[in-house]
Design a protein that fits this description.
The chain contains six helices and four strands, in the order H-E-H-E-H-E-H-E-H-H. With 141 residues, the protein is α/β, with parallel strands linked by helices. The protein has one domain: Rossmann fold. It is found in: Cytoplasm.
């Protein structure tokens, strides 16, 4: 993600519109047609603006306690028809409850909670994470 970790900051990363455009460009360059977008933590700043503007370009969306969910209204979320698996660890008491509170307005969502996992639930419980993810992917058209 531009501007996070050791990556250089990118001008595009400064606004939601720029982050949406950045992700749009990445998917275009990769030649991806209707991918499933998996969005853990900080990547929410990129994934959420894209989802709200171009959710119809995604086959599915898997938010994992992403940041930025409070930046959008329940009405905005209700307008998204992308199948969504809201996934988080039950030991993530920071971002997960807030993300769930906001993302539960997505009309085509289901929730998977990984018992005994923290914020990086995919690292804490990789088998449970993959089981939940693969179950979701199998249900997509």
């Amino acid at each position: 993600i531009p501007g996070y970790g050791d990556s250089p900051p990118g001008e595009m990363a400064l606004t939601a519109q720029g982050r949406r455009a950045f992700l749009e460009r990445v998917l275009q360059e990769l030649g991806m047609q209707r991918p499933v977008l998996i969005s853990p933590s900080m990547s929410g700043r990129f994934a959420l603006p894209f989802l709200l503007a171009h959710g119809d370009r995604l086959a599915g969306f898997v938010p994992i306690a992403p940041v930025g969910t409070k930046d959008y209204t329940a009405e905005q979320y209700r307008g998204v028809q992308t199948p969504t698996l809201i996934l988080y660890g039950d030991r993530d008491t920071g971002l997960a409850p807030q993300a769930l509170q906001n993302l539960q307005h997505l009309p085509k969502h289901r929730v998977a909670v990984l018992s005994g996992a923290g914020h990086a639930c995919y690292l804490d419980k990789p088998e449970d994470f993959h089981r939940a993810l693969l179950g979701f992917l199998r249900q997509l058209k």
